Amino acid sequence: MDWIEISVEVKTKDIDEASAIANMTVPYGIYIEDYSQLEDEVMEIAHVDLIDEDLLQKSRDTAKIHIYIDPEDNIGEAVQFLKERLTAAKISFSIDQSSVKEDDWLNNWRKFFKPMQIGEKLLINPSWYTDTDPEGRAVLNIDPGLAFGTGKHETTRLCLETLERYLKGGEQVLDVGCGSGILGIAAVMLGAESAFGVDIDETAVRTANENAVLNHADKQFHAIAGDLVDKVQGNYDIIVANIVADAIIALSASVKSFMKPDSVYIVSGIIDTRADDVRNAVRGSFDIIEEITKGGWYCLVMKAK
To answer: Where in the chain does DSSP place strands (E)?
Structure first.
């Protein structure tokens, strides 16, 4: 298989947070090239101070994250997600993708994106499939474009399955970091009265609103551009955030003001190595009522204390 490589260069001080963001793009891990502690690590492991000259020429101030993506996946979605989340985290970066021409990865992934049954009631259907048999399920037609959210990533599936279980009908839903709009629109199709999405990336917001029109849900779902909840008003029955651990931690200080007394707060995008960080950050304001895990990713369901 000819994997597509995306490399992200960041300052070494930002490597941990940037790596957590990069992990959201693939389910099978990343490779980090960080030489900031080269001499100390070589001495600790090999107990010698003789280091290859090529290694000694490596930058100590920057690090690279290498991400290898299956050509069957939406490379544009991954690149756009990285740009959006790294910008939101105020991390300086440069991105390079190799092994394939941009014109190829913008569209070739579509032939591998098939209709998917999720949970008990939902069918995610690529917009270019016009004859899919829903088999009694609610059909969400989706064209993610360059926005994150096809339903293939474990975190998106976790959120969709969890939303289905907590939706009883008639709720108002807030989706923070809405990406393609998949969660908010799915909520409407599963019985929510309305859903409101916010995303820092204007491309994602445009895609989300286009997907709402595609599903005849534009009267119940609308997305705007904004950072976390800075442009959000009102109170919601369910708030969902499929973002990254650091953004969830930052969000926890303000999200309570948008919740009703019995609201449910669903978060995902939490890699297993950051689950404790999130638990510790929210425990003063929220009770975690459920934890679901899949493929090394966590989804937490919470209620305000």
So the answer is: 4-11, 31-34, 62-69, 93-98, 116-118, 122-126, 138-142, 172-176, 194-199, 221-225, 236-242, 259-271, 286-294, 297-304
The pLDDT of 279-296, averaged and rounded, is 93
- Confidence at 103, pLDDT banded by 50, 70, 90: low
The percent of residues in the chain predicted with pLDDT above 70, rounded, is 83
Residue range 146-155, pLDDT digits in tens: 666 777 788 8
State how far the Cα of 268 lies from the Cα of 270, in Å rounded to an integer: 5
Q: By CB neighbour count within 10 A (0-12 exposed, 13-18 middle, 19+ buried), where does 139 fall?
A: middle
The CA radius of gyration of the chain, in Å to the nearest whole number, is 20
Strand order in the sheet with 194-199: 221-225, 194-199, 172-176, 236-242, 259-271, 297-304, 286-294
- Token pair 């690149």 is found at 79
Q: Do the beta carbons of residue 5 and residue 55 sit within 8 Å?
A: no
Domains and CATH numbers, the chain: 4-108 (3.30.70.120), 114-304 (3.40.50.150)
